[in-house]
Write a structure and sequence with these properties.
It is a single chain. The chain is 38% helix and 18% strand. It has two domains: 175 residues, HUPs (Rossmann fold), CATH 3.40.50; 97 residues, Pantoate--beta-alanine Ligase, Chain: A,domain 2 (2-Layer Sandwich), CATH 3.30.1300.10. The chain is globular. The longest helix is centred in the middle third of the chain and has 16 residues. The chain contains eleven helices and nine strands. The structure holds pantoate. Pantoate (PAF) binds next to strand 2 and helix 7. The site of pantoate has 10 residues, from strand 2 and helix 7.
């Protein structure tokens, strides 16, 4: 399938109104472009569950506190349109910053502010980040009027923030969280991975390894504490050497994001890790059943 490229959100919004009037469902996959197979899997799932699939491709400046990080964010619109079409997208919308934020670089007068969930972990390390995400996601959902929206679980806190804003603002869409796709060695797929040097790429394996080891520790000892798991995850990530700076490695309750102290509960625990590896911010997370394929044989 070949996806149609729109350069304006107004054009996409008008097309979506038309689609809805025909009684067709719209699956929406919001992205910041530099699409990889992880995005492809979201698009393919959206295509299997909806009549029409819209992909937005917009590097949202409002969610970057660091101008350098924004400038270095990878971009590849031609590649994105091709990948999105192959995966089943109908429309790719790549709007201009001036359309979404006419006052840019001054921020828009109306912002969506999320509250405590947006102030911890990613929110604490990147102040204002989730307000930028919440504002753009609200605009995009309003313009596209999707039936279902597909977000990756790799950004686990972002997914929770988006679930909260859509519930709080009564946005009548179904939010669907999709499993993280991984490279063969376990590294979670991310647009930022292309910025890893060969050495950093090796060190980056520590994140998924730490998540897998947390799962293994839990299977060996069901009474293991959140503190012990967090400490072991931190050691595993930092074993990557000088290229690695750990931001956090924690076990939280998956719905409240409160850190688990004492014994963990398999049904609610989520391990979250963020590290800067060779200057690239990498996030990963998993529940305690997670296991890297090459560890299956050594596990009890
Ligand atoms: O996850 C992303 O790519 C972005 O944060 C999102 C949700 C598209 C908002 O810009």
């Amino acid at each position: 399938m070949v996806a149609v490229l729109h350069h304006s959100l107004a054009e996409t919004s008008a097309a979506c109104q038309n689609i809805r009037h025909q009684g067709l469902s719209i699956g929406f996959v919001p992205t910041m472009g530099a699409l990889h197979d992880g995005h492809g899997s979201l698009i393919a799932r959206a295509a299997s569950e909806n009549d029409v699939v819209v992909v937005s491709d917009f590097v949202n400046p409002l969610q970057f506190g660091d101008a350098n990080d924004l400038a270095r964010y990878p971009r590849d619109l031609d590649g994105d349109v091709a990948l999105a079409g192959r995966a089943g997208a109908t429309i790719v919308c790549a709007p201009q910053v001036s359309e979404l934020y006419p006052t840019w670089p001054a921020p828009p007068a109306t912002m969506v502010t999320v509250g405590p969930l947006a102030e911890i972990f990613e929110g604490a390390s990147r102040p204002g980040h989730f307000d930028g995400v919440a504002t753009v996601v609200t605009k995009l959902h309003n313009a596209v009027t999707p039936t279902r929206v597909y977000y990756g679980e790799k950004d686990f806190q972002q997914l929770a923030v988006i679930r909260q804003i859509t519930a709080d603002l009564w946005n009548p869409v179904e939010i669907i969280g999709c499993t993280t796709l991984r490279e063969k060695d376990g590294l979670a797929m991310s647009s930022r991975n292309v910025r890893l040097s060969p050495a950093a790429r090796i060190a980056a394996r520590g994140l998924s390894k730490a998540l897998s080891e947390a799962g293994r520790m839990f299977r060996h000892n069901r009474a293991v504490t959140g503190e012990a798991l967090s400490a072991h995850m931190a050691r595993t990530v930092l074993a990557g050497g000088d290229l690695v700076t750990l931001d956090y490695a924690v076990v939280v309750d998956a719905s409240t994001f409160v850190e688990v102290s004492g014994p963990v509960d398999l049904s609610t625990a989520r391990c979250l890790i963020t590290a800067i590896v060779g200057g690239v911010r990498l996030l990963d997370n998993a529940d305690l059943s997670f296991q890297l394929p090459d560890e299956t044989s050594t596990s009890p």
